Amino acid sequence: MLAEIESLLVLQDRDQRILKLEADLKRIPIDQERAKERLANDLESVAKAKLAVQENEVAIKNIELDIGTRKATLTRLKTQQYETKKNDEFTALGNEIERYNEQIDDYETQELELMEKADELRALQKKAEDALAITQGMVDEEIASLGSQLEENNKRLAEVKAERAKLAENIDDDQLSLYDRLMKSKGGDAIVSAEKSQCSGCHMKLVPATMISVQSEKEVTQCENCGRILYL
């Protein structure tokens, strides 16, 4: 193998590492955001559960106010009935007292039902909060792990870039320029194998003249189809 090709292959190895590290560095913040998004459903469930508990508590307080108002009215009606001397008024007040007693009974029944519902709603809230705590722990751990990866990848990227710079210093300018152009245009594969008379980059069959040039190892040879540098 040509010494120039060997040097370029080592350089390509570093460049491919750089590309992978840079791709990972772009991906990690996205993964962190996705991890946070996993909390969204659990947070929404907790919020809904809390709201249901609060609305139920408000409903209980409203019923308690209604009961209190009617009991006060009932006390007043009983006093009026006790003080009246008229039979028709006594009867009318008695009917009102009965109606208010029925209303109070209905409200007290509703209050008991809401109190039972309150226990169920609080249990659902506790369940939602427990699920959130588990998810939060997992997400926190994942975000911390991704943060460590981010730090390590940044460090490694700086090291590989430094290695790459030193390697590039020892490569002919024209060959380096050709290589750099191919790296950009060919998605990170500037130098590829010509095994079985086929370019492993574009997968096209190589003409005999190209294969003879590669096998002679006298000069850098490019694929006549895609332009990639070839080696055996």
TrEMBL record:
<feature type="domain" description="C4-type zinc ribbon">
    <location>
        <begin position="199"/>
        <end position="230"/>
    </location>
</feature>
<dbReference type="InterPro" id="IPR003743">
    <property type="entry name" value="Zf-RING_7"/>
</dbReference>
<dbReference type="Pfam" id="PF24481">
    <property type="entry name" value="CT398_CC"/>
</dbReference>
<dbReference type="Pfam" id="PF02591">
    <property type="entry name" value="Zn_ribbon_9"/>
</dbReference>
<protein>
    <recommendedName>
        <fullName>C4-type zinc ribbon domain-containing protein</fullName>
    </recommendedName>
</protein>
<dbReference type="InterPro" id="IPR052376">
    <property type="entry name" value="Oxidative_Scav/Glycosyltrans"/>
</dbReference>
<dbReference type="InterPro" id="IPR056003">
    <property type="entry name" value="CT398_CC_hairpin"/>
</dbReference>
<keyword id="KW-0175">Coiled coil</keyword>
<feature type="coiled-coil region">
    <location>
        <begin position="90"/>
        <end position="177"/>
    </location>
</feature>
<feature type="domain" description="CT398-like coiled coil hairpin">
    <location>
        <begin position="11"/>
        <end position="187"/>
    </location>
</feature>
